[in-house]
Amino acid sequence: MIFFWAFIVGGIICVIGQLLMDVAKLTPAHTMSTLVVAGAILDGLGLYEPLIKFAGAGATVPITSFGNALVHGAIQEMQTDGVIGIITGIFEVTSAGISAAIIFGFLCALVFNPKG
After folding, report:
1. Where are the domains of the chain?
2. 3-class DSSP string for the chain
């Protein structure tokens, strides 16, 4: 059943993104930013973690999870380190994913030639 709910929740997030582009005429960059902010707000309200527990990868794979990670890390570190934890928590939680994206993007650029 976890696969079903992951598919449904991930699909709903994607449908929301597509509607933002088609109906609201937002650019892909604006849509992505909106979804990141939505994930951050949902985590700030304490609603994103239950969604992750319910849907698994359906909530952790879409871009909304990045906003969740930013706020979640900031809140966790703020509780332990105070106000400075807001800044350090953002980098601590998201650094592995961002570093991986940079490294794999660089490796792909070395292996493949762009067509254009």
Report:
1. 2-111
2. CHHHHHHHHHHHHHHHHHHHHHCCCCCHHHHHHHHHHHHHHHHHCCCHHHHHHHHCHHHHCCCHHHHHHHHHHHHHHHHHHCCHHHHHHHHHHHHHHHHHHHHHHHHHHHHCCCCC
